[in-house]
Amino acid sequence: MGKYKVLTCRKPTKCEKCGREIAKGEKYIRRTQRTNKRARCNDCGAPRPSEMTGSETLSQAYSIQENLEGYTDSETPLDIVGAIRDASNAVEELITEIDEKISNIEEYFPSGSPASERLQEHRDGLEEWQDELDEQLNEAENLANILDELYKENGDEADMDGEYGDKLVDLQQILSDLAGSLSI
């Protein structure tokens, strides 16, 4: 994974993300990946983990995780359940892609290779995460159904300090836990 730090621009350069010119003397973020150095303006912010890895597989996995993180706190219960379902489906697709890559590598290197071993480790971590996503999806759906019933009973009067608020916090906690549970 690459590194980044905040520096003061010594000569005008362009932001890799938005294309805006970073003026001399302005603070910017320099991202280094191996020998490749890239500049990013402060408006675009620090690079996300999906942007910092050279591995396509890890980038996709981190992107799924980042999408989950984007749903914490501000979405409706059904949006949160949908985000967890979408993440589970995306992880399943990524596992299928990894299986194809491993199969292709093993076709040409029957005794194995470091690349196939690394992909297998990624696959194992993603499979564990998908199991957790699926398990928590059931819990999230149950909470969303309870919240829906409470809302139907109370309408806009649903008490955010009472049972409705508690269940909503529980649902948001599931999402937050899942967003932080990827370990590959």
Q: Any idea what the radius of gyration is?
A: 21 Å
Order of helical and strand elements: EEEEEHHHHH
Q: Characterize the overall form.
A: flat
Arithmetic mean of pLDDT: 87
The total count of helices amounts to 5
Distance between the termini: 13 Å
Strand content: 5-15%
List the quaternary state of the chains. single chain
Task: Compute the number of structural domains.
Answer: 2
**Strand order within the widest beta sheet:** 1-4-5
**Biggest sheet, open or closed, and with what strands and sense?**
3 strands, antiparallel
Structural class: alpha+beta
Number of strands: 5
Weakly predicted, low-confidence segments: none
Report helical residue fraction. Answer: 55-70%
SSE blueprint:
Blueprint: E1 3-8, E2 13-14, E3 21-22, E4 27-33, E5 36-41, H1 49-52, H2 56-69, H3 77-108, H4 114-154, H5 163-179
Helix pairs in contact: 2-3, 2-5, 3-4, 4-5
Verbal overview:
By secondary structure, this protein is an alpha+beta fold. The chain has two domains: 3-47, Wheat Germ Agglutinin (Isolectin 2), domain 1; 56-179. 59% of the residues lie in helices and 12% in strands. The strands form two sheets. A three-stranded antiparallel beta sheet has the order 1-4-5, with no helix packed on it. Strand 4 and strand 5 (36-41) form a beta hairpin. The chain is flat, with a radius of gyration of 21 Å. The mean pLDDT is 87.
Concise summary:
The chain contains five helices and five strands, in the order βββββααααα. By secondary structure, the chain is α+β, with helices and mostly antiparallel strands.
